[in-house]
What we know:
Layout: E1 28-30, E2 34-36, E3 50-55, E4 60-65, E5 81-83, E6 87-89, E7 103-108, E8 113-118, E9 134-136, E10 140-142, E11 152-154, E12 159-161, E13 180-182, E14 185-187, E15 201-206, E16 211-216, E17 232-234, E18 238-240, E19 254-259, E20 264-269, E21 285-287, E22 291-293, E23 307-312, E24 317-322, E25 338-341, E26 345-348, E27 357-360, E28 365-368, H1 387-390, H2 416-419, H3 442-446, H4 477-480, H5 501-504, E29 552-553, E30 559-560, E31 564-565, E32 568-569
Amino acid sequence: CNEGTDSCDNVPNDANCDNGLWCDGAETCHVTLDCQAGTAPDCNDGVGCTDDSCNEGTDSCDNIPNDANCDNGLYCDGVETCDPVLDCQPGTAVDCDDGVGCTDDSCNEGTDLCDNVPNDANCDDALFCNGAETCDVELDCQAGSDPCPGQLCDEGTDTCYDCQDNADCDDGVYCNGEEQCVVGTCQPGTAVDCGDGVGCTDDSCNEGTDSCDNVPNDANCDNGLWCDGAETCHVTLDCQAGTAPDCSDGVGCTDDSCNEGTDSCDNIPNDANCDNAQWCDGAETCHVTLDCQAGTAPDCNDGVDCTDDSCNEGTDSCDNVANDTNCPDDGFFCTGTEYCDAVNDCDHTGDPCEAGEVCNESTDTCDPSACDGDLVCESGEDCNNCSSDCISGVGSAVCGNGLCEAGDGEDCRSCSEDCNGITTGAPSGRFCCGATEGCDDIRCRTDGWTCTTEVQGVSYCCGDGTCEGDESGFNCEIDCGVDPYCGDGSCNGDEDQCSCPDDCGTPPASEVPNSTCFDGIDNDCDGDTDCADADCYGIDPDCPECLLKGEVCFEDSECCSLRCFKGFCK
């Protein structure tokens, strides 16, 4: 707005249209048409081989000579170049002269290489007796070799000839026969025939003695069969048969034969040659030097004491017959009748009383139960005949009070929690299998109560020499040997510092920041792992790079300097 003229001024300003690009030319402002594009500078220098372009960085034109614009694609013309003023200039033709006079030198446009081909014709002196001259690619022409070695050369006829008489043809070799000169050419003689008519001799002509050799060769008679013996060659009778090897070893039970595959004798022990057909004698065997050996009778002992064990020749097997008479009466009415179990040895038929009856060992009778079910242990009731009333509370023979009340009928059958393993004070004629009885005690093995001298609670007899039932190296080392277990001095199986410090070492008192706090292991055995452990100061196992900064990791993997709680920065 012009205050002096009381009007508006609208002055065109080219600067308002400048796009800052020199190569676009100078933009201008038109008073009515607004900004107008500039005219780009003309960078053509008139030289065809230069690469012309506008350089925005220098606000000038670039005219760069480019030899590739002049290349005519012909190797043999040399390399064309671009002159920034004179345009394309021709190259210098390739010089293919190798300095060897007999080679044909040329430039090969197909391979972009020089060819220097040796040409023997460039060296030929046209004289037959000089031989054929050759061209060497480095040494130039080379003289030819004698075309008639050991002969005469005729230059007039370009031919070689051998001889004038037989003496000129003699090669001095007896075995070749006598050479002959025929029309100037030596003819070979007839070789000496040394065949003697014997097939197995090696026939040859001996040049040293001027005679024939006829040498017997046993190999010519070999039929390849070791078991036939070694064939021989006789100088006049030809091949003679060999003598078969004697394979007898003097041991009657071995099978003797000649083995063609191994070129040796086989003397194989054959137990069948010793079998006396008596199964109960055991299996007789053949010894390679001691001949037949007696067998070992089968062990028919089945390990069950009450069976009658014997060998049955008729069935070729052992008989193990259960015999109840081998099981003595243990004197207890309430255990039932003793009998022989072919698997478990002596056993009992069990409580002879019917449901609702109580077995009375003192009278060997089945008495009616006195239990009335009122949960009070009253006179006439005890844990033998009324466990529902007498398991606790007051009254006679209370099971679970810690006292083995033998006078009231408690024993290891009726009240194991009070009486198991106790013999003192047990009722007359009764006993409790426990630490004081051995597993060999027939009563403890047959009355249903296990007696173990090593470990209470297993269902078989630990110490009887057989690993059975639920016995193992953990509860019965004496029968089953040592299994890997905590305390055996070796950290094995699933043992570790937490479950077995005795074998695997004492765990550290705490997790170690920047060391064990991101290994995924509860190293100090406190039940917490890594960031969840109070010993770990803000270390997140997913971001160990934060440790390099002394920081911890946010849940979005950003490092921070706060404390880590259960895997997250708080």
